Automatic annotation (TrEMBL), chain A:
Keywords: Cell membrane, Membrane, Transmembrane, Transmembrane helix, Transport. It is found in: Cell membrane. Residues 81-296 form the ABC transmembrane type-1 domain. Belongs to the binding-protein-dependent transport system permease family. PANTHER family: ABC TRANSPORTER PERMEASE PROTEIN. The chain crosses the membrane at residues 26-48, 84-107, 119-138, 167-192, 213-238, 273-296. Pfam families: BPD_transp_1 (PF00528). InterPro entries: ABC_transporter_permease (IPR051393), MetI-like (IPR000515), MetI-like_sf (IPR035906). Its main location: membrane. This is Sugar ABC transporter permease. The lineage of its organism: Bacteria, Pseudomonadati, Pseudomonadota, Betaproteobacteria, Rhodocyclales. It is a multi-pass membrane protein. It comes from Uliginosibacterium silvisoli.
UniProtKB/TrEMBL annotation, chain B:
Pfam families: BPD_transp_1. It comes from the Bacteria. This is Carbohydrate ABC transporter permease. Residues 79-271 form the ABC transmembrane type-1 domain. It is a multi-pass membrane protein. InterPro entries: MetI-like, MetI-like_sf. It is found in: Cell membrane. It comes from Uliginosibacterium silvisoli. Belongs to the binding-protein-dependent transport system permease family. The lineage of its organism: Bacteria, Pseudomonadati, Pseudomonadota, Betaproteobacteria, Rhodocyclales.
From TrEMBL, chain C:
CDD domains: ABC_MalK_N. InterPro entries: AAA+_ATPase, ABC_transporter-like_ATP-bd, ABC_transporter-like_CS, ABC_transpr_MalK-like, ABC_transpr_MalK/UgpC-like, Mo/tungstate-bd_C_term_dom, NA-bd_OB-fold, OB_MalK-like. GO terms for molecular function: ATP binding. Signal peptide: none annotated. Residues 4-234 form the ABC transporter domain. This is Sn-glycerol-3-phosphate ABC transporter ATP-binding protein UgpC. Pfam families: ABC_tran (PF00005), OB_MalK (PF17912). It comes from Uliginosibacterium silvisoli. Keywords: ATP-binding, Cell membrane, Membrane, Nucleotide-binding, Transport. Transmembrane segments: none annotated.
Length: 305, 286, 369
């Protein structure tokens, strides 16, 4: 059957029919406005702001890339970028690994699978603030994990990462993985379940062992899931704001700053709108740098079919 | 399906899964246990210890008298502020998403597919890129720092997701259904009301749950676009936990966190499978 | 003008011409079939008659009214779809009366119409069920009921039987034909199945690549196909095509044949138009049912010839056995009575009834008259 889009009804002199023709467009209009103005329009606005010397209030004078210059001369910004790389890299990698591992485990016809799955997934229902709060205290040396293990007799155990400027970012990783790996697991599980059973049966008849089947057949067919998970995780990582604010407040000092918290601090608490806008635009650039190649490769592969 | 035999492998499997489960349950249990402990017991012992004496005082305090910045009225007011934001925002963004999905799948016109792609791309923009202009705009519209203002923001940025959900659902409905209705004489709105809406139950549930969770749990919009009493509960919670006046009352903090998490957790417990469906519906593209 | 007139209708979409100029006229009460392979444009034409698709150029008249600018609901038509397209959330009764409800028919009249239709189609016991609770055949009936209830000037069917299994398809085909006889409505019916086309239609339009290859009655099209495509498309098993050189044979023209190394010539029966083709190759079309085992009832009819040919393959179908032979390098199917069927590898005496043979120009593929 030919897949055919519905053409609009033939032109008519009747004004009611004309209304009918344009009604779909009218319905879409608010979202169109939203899209154009509040998505793309605002992005451009922010980019324009980043080219102005605005501090507390917007001043629309053009100063070129001055704000970007001072942005990249700012040590704290470089730290934020470095943290993003560390956090983003570990977060994405470990979430993918955990998610895949859990999905494979759950796929082994485990009893009470639904119940276990809901345990892995419930963190997603929580706000990052709640997550951050809980982990903040768990990782606090004076009442959390360290104290528990000390009290149990392992007195030499220390886990003061959250108070250590060099290690604090890794605590964000721990909390982040806890929150998001369940989601990746759900995606991988759906992907695993959608693999045609007969392919695996054929491989078994051909004599392949389970590890080999996983490596050569199952994992490659999960490629699309890897990609969508990567994209979504990257998106979450770049946007990470709530989690850091709750877990460490950006600290100690600003050692766990991420671009998102940097932007908020400078734009809304330090009255440096221009600089904040510049940081936001750089963040946008990072997101695009991740998404555009992915979209492009997706479009190309679907066109090749 | 044959029951797998009990082997060393299976035992290891279950052991590892149990271990993982503990990792995932840890924060929740920590929050729950410590929210019903007496503060001294908490400080004497540790976070993981089971409470010997149960007290609900921290809960009462978190709800009605904890300090969130300069005011000390507990989370009570902010809870209802969140409700006032979430309910209209979910309803409006879901409605918009439904209509958009309907038009984009069954009344396509020149350029409507491009519009859909542009809208979808919008799902990915980091909100930092729109915070400043939005703050300006809310001010100019006179709804800065208000509940309607937050509703507005959540509707604007939630519509991309709700449209995606509905569109992906409606795409599976055969074209011929609408053709038959048009021949029967039904118009645009009648077709939506009498034919499409009645079979939209599942996706409406998924969308509402997803939106409810997203908006209730939001922090960024709350902290940027509101202050004082108009803040949603997530912001209030963060303030509460980070207020450093006097003694740190961990148990109250925990109770507050649980209160803030309760609505979405409850939704999850009751309708969890729809939640999962929402994730895979939104994330699996096209 | 009759019930439906299609005049010089063209359709282009994204620069591609889908329909290249269609002209069809049918009278009130006639059953028109649009048949052809996938992609020939028959469904597009139906959509345009229905008003679901825009007409690029040309006119469509329904009951003497130009409908180009009218939306589907104003054209007084009803349509039955391949997938039935029943409204899932409504009962059968509501499905059937939906169109009447939109047109603001009073409830009492609507109920009467539904009951009348349900009786005709024998679905009274299904009226309170939902589509999901019905079988394929039942859904098909409800879809037809929905169309009949509106009592329109024109019925449109878009491959309604394609989703049914073979046995049900035959049953429903008969029902549709009986319904047509009973209601006397004008019908346009799209199908890719040439058997449906032959059994149901009063008039058939055979389409290919956006053009009507031939328009006529079923027997017209079967006996006098206009070109190679129509000849090969209609009829199952399809017509045999043998390339043969026209030669002189006896007092008239003949066709040179060769099979299994043996050469022979058939008289060119009805071959007056072949005079200009002496010495050249034409394509001879002969249907399988015209090649049978030797039967004496034809006596000395000069148009019937006998020839023994080696059998290549034998396919018993039950009522007949199809035998495959090679003539002039072409695969030729013969329809013989199973009791007399020859054995593959051996020769069998076959009888060729050449009275219905047709000839085609090999380059233009048109029939040589």
């Amino acid at each position: 059957m030919q897949a055919q889009t519905l053409s609009p009804p033939p032109r008519s002199a009747n004004w009611l029919d004309t209304l009918e023709r344009i009604l779909p467009k009218i319905v879409l209009a608010p979202s169109f406005v939203i899209c154009v103005v509040f998505f793309y329009g605002f992005i451009i606005w922010t980019a324009l702001l980043s080219l102005t010397p605005s501090r507390m209030l917007p001043r629309y004078e053009f100063v070129g890339i001055e704000q970007y210059a001072s942005l990249f001369a700012n040590d704290r910004w470089w730290l934020a970028l470095k943290n993003l790389a560390i956090f983003g890299g570990l977060f994405i990698f470990l979430c993918l690994v955990m998610g895949l591992l859990l999905a494979i485990l759950l796929d082994q016809r485990v009893r009470a699978e639904g119940f276990i799955r809901s345990i892995f997934l419930y963190p997603l229902a929580l706000s990052f603030i709640v997550t951050g709060t809980a982990w903040k205290w768990i990782l606090d040396p004076s009442i959390g994990l360290q104290k528990v293990l000390n009290d149990l007799g392992w007195t030499s155990f220390t886990f003061e990462w959250i108070k250590d400027p060099d290690m604090a970012i890794y605590t964000v990783v721990i909390a982040g993985i806890w929150q998001s790996s369940g989601f990746v697991m759900a995606l991988f599980l759906a992907g695993l379940r959608s693999i045609d059973d007969s392919i695996i049966k054929a491989a078994k008849i051909d004599g392949a062992s389970m590890p080999m089947i996983y490596r050569r057949i199952i994992l490659p067919s999960l490629r699309p899931v890897f990609f969508s998970s990567f994209m979504i995780l990257a998106h979450i990582a770049i946007k990470s704001f709530d989690l850091v604010m709750a877990l460490t407040g950006g600290g100690p000092g600003f050692s766990t700053d991420l671009p998102a918290t940097f932007m908020y601090t400078y734009a809304f608490t330090r009255n440096q709108i221009g600089l904040g806008a510049a940081s936001a635009t750089v963040m946008l650039g990072i997101v695009l740098a991740v998404i555009v190649p992915f979209m492009y490769s997706e479009l190309r592969s679907t066109r090749r079919g | 399906m044959a029951k797998p035999k009990i082997t060393v492998g299976r035992i290891a499997l279950y052991a590892f899964i149990t271990y993982c489960c503990l990792y995932y349950l840890l924060p929740l249990t920590v929050m729950l246990f410590n929210s019903i402990k007496d503060l001294n017991e908490l400080k004497a012992g540790s976070l993981m210890a089971f409470p010997t004496q149960v007290t609900f005082e921290p809960w009462v305090k978190a709800w009605s008298s904890a300090c969130t910045g300069i005011t000390c009225d507990g989370l009570r007011g902010y809870f209802w502020t969140s409700v006032a934001i979430v309910v209209p925002a979910v309803l409006i963004s879901t409605l918009l998403g439904a209509f958009n999905g309907y038009v984009l799948t069954m009344w396509r016109f020149k350029g409507s597919d491009w519009f859909f792609m542009a809208l979808m791309l919008g799902c990915f923009i980091p909100f930092q890129s729109i915070l400043l202009p939005m703050a300006q705009t809310l001010g100019k519209l006179g709804i800065a720092n208000s509940v309607p203002g937050l509703i507005f923001v959540h509707v604007v940025y939630g519509t991309a997701f709700t449209t995606l959900f509905f569109r992906n659902y409606y795409v599976a409905i055969p074209d011929e259904l609408v053709k038959a209705a048009r021949i029967d004489g039904a118009d645009f709105l009648t077709i939506f009301r009498r034919i499409i809406l009645p079979i939209s139950g599942p996706i409406i549930v998924v969308t509402v749950i997803w939106q409810f969770t997203q908006i209730w749990n939001d922090f960024l919009f709350g902290v940027v676009f509101s202050s004082g009493e108009r803040q949603p509960i997530t912001v209030a919670l963060n303030n509460l936990v980070n207020t450093s006046t006097g003694v740190k009352e961990y148990n109250v903090d925990m109770a507050a966190a649980v209160i803030a998490a309760l609505p979405t957790l409850l939704v999850y417990v009751v309708a969890g499978k729809y939640f999962v469906r929402g994730l895979t519906a939104g994330a699996v593209k096209g | 003008m009759g019930a439906l007139s299609i005049r010089k209708v063209r359709k282009s979409y994204a620069g591609v011409e889908i329909l290249k100029g269609i002209d069809i006229d049918i009278e009130q009460g006639e059953f028109l079939i649009l048949v052809g392979p996938s992609g020939c444009g028959k469904s597009t034409l139906l959509s345009m008659i229905a008003g679901l698709d825009e007409i690029t150029s040309g006119d469509v008249f329904i009951a003497d009214r130009r409908v180009n600018d009218l939306s589907p609901k104003d054209r007084d038509i009803a349509m039955v779809f391949q997938s039935y397209a029943l409204y899932p959330s409504m009962t059968v009764r509501e499905n059937i009366s939906f169109g009447l409800e939109i047109r603001k028919m009073p409830k009492a009249e609507r109920d009467a119409a539904v009951d009348r239709v349900a009786q005709i189609l024998q679905i009274e016991h299904l009226l309170d069920r939902r589509p999901s609770q019905l079988s394929g055949g039942q859904r098909q009936r409800v879809a037809m009921g929905r169309a009949i209830a509106r009592n329109p000037a024109l019925f449109l069917f878009d491959e309604p039987l394609s989703n049914l299994d073979a046995k049900l398809r035959v049953e429903m085909r008969t029902e549709i034909k009986l319904l047509h006889k009973r209601l006397g409505t004008t019908i346009v019916y799209v199908t890719h199945d040439q058997i449906e086309a032959m059994t149901l239609g009063d008039k058939i339009a055979v389409m290919k690549a956006g053009e009507v290859q031939q328009f006529g009655t079923p027997s017209d099209i079967y006996r006098n196909p206009a070109n190679l495509f129509v000849a090969g498309f209609m009829g199952s098993p399809s017509m045999n095509f043998i390339k043969a050189k026209v030669c002189e044979s006896g007092s008239g023209l003949g066709l040179e044949m060769e099979s299994g190394g043996e050469r022979f010539a058939f008289p060119a029966v009805n071959g007056e138009g072949l005079a200009a083709w002496k010495g050249r190759e034409v394509i001879v079309g002969i249907r399988p049912e015209q090649i049978t085992e030797v039967v004496d009832s034809h006596g000395d009819d000069p148009r019937v010839v006998r020839q023994s040919l080696p059998i290549v393959l034998s396919e018993p179908t039950g009522p007949d056995t199809l035998l495959l032979v090679h003539i002039n390098g072409a695969k030729v199917t013969c329809r013989v009575c199973p009791d007399f069927a020859g054995v593959p590898g051996e020769k069998m005496a076959l009888m060729f009834d050449l009275s219905k043979v047709v000839y085609f120009d090999p380059s233009t593929e048109q029939r040589i008259k």
